[in-house]
Design brief:
Blueprint (H helix, E strand, L loop, with lengths): L2 H20 L13 H9 L19 H12 L20 H9 L19 H11 L15 H9 L16 H17 L17 H5 L9 H7 L1
Helix pairs in contact: 2-7, 3-4, 3-5, 5-6, 5-7
């Protein structure tokens, strides 16, 4: 056996294996997801976790409490005390500080009877309202006769959080949908500030959906920036 020739082959094989592992998806079932980049990014950011069996379960629905916690983790570094800010939330609930903090910051209001319904599935419409508010994306007022969520839906499409054709606003938000909305909101307002453009009149300019869709994807495109940020 010619060790001189075999050694470079071994090294190249080892390097290839290392690169494959470095870019491996963190969960076994992301091949079934439309948004593996978003899920991987938020996992590496230590915002999203999977299940003990190594799956992410992208099609599973998200509760109102779960979404609020994730948004608050990205929205602020403030630590809020556990409290009973809604009739159906106990001080001992794990999500109490986040939900009550979101209410204090004006991101959520709950229902007229002072319930929050933390265990209910959150809809895409509700998620759009929470995320566009938390990331301070400009939202127009609803025109007379329009559904209440339409302005948030327009903003989400305008800033390329999610194309209107990809979801029904009244459907339950999925884990992969939640990841995509958060991922795009972070990209637009944080990692790629040039895409969060301010027009000459001081108002936020329109973001071109096509250019955002064709931009380099995470984690490669933004990894160096993220390392500097954290």
């Amino acid at each position: 056996m010619n060790l001189t020739k075999a050694y470079p082959v071994f090294v190249l094989t080892a390097v290839a294996a290392f690169l494959m592992l470095a870019h491996a998806e963190p969960f076994f079932d992301l091949s079934h997801s439309r948004y593996p980049e978003a899920i991987t990014f938020l996992h590496e950011r230590e915002v999203l976790n999977g299940y003990d069996d190594g799956t992410f379960r992208p099609a599973k629905s998200v509760t109102r409490a779960e979404l609020t916690v994730l948004v608050m983790l990205e929205h602020t570094n403030r630590i809020f005390a556990p409290q009973r800010c809604f009739a159906d939330i106990a001080v001992t609930d794990w999500f109490s500080p986040y939900v009550c903090g979101a209410r204090e910051l004006g991101l959520i209001t709950g229902y007229p009877d002072n319930r929050f319904a933390p265990a209910e599935s959150v809809t895409y419409a509700e998620a759009l309202k929470l995320i566009t508010s938390a990331f301070a994306l400009p939202v127009d007022s609803a025109a007379k006769g329009e559904p209440w969520f339409l302005p948030y839906q327009k903003t989400a499409h305008r800033f390329a959080l999610m194309p209107v054709s990809s979801y029904n606003p009244r459907d339950a938000l999925t884990r992969e949908g939640m990841a995509q909305l958060l991922y795009r909101a972070i990209v637009v307002t944080d990692v790629n500030p040039l895409e969060y453009a301010v027009a000459g009149n001081g108002q936020l300019g329109d973001v071109d959906f096509v250019s955002l869709q064709t931009a380099p994807s995470f984690p490669e495109a933004a990894l160096r920036r993220l390392v500097q940020m954290f």
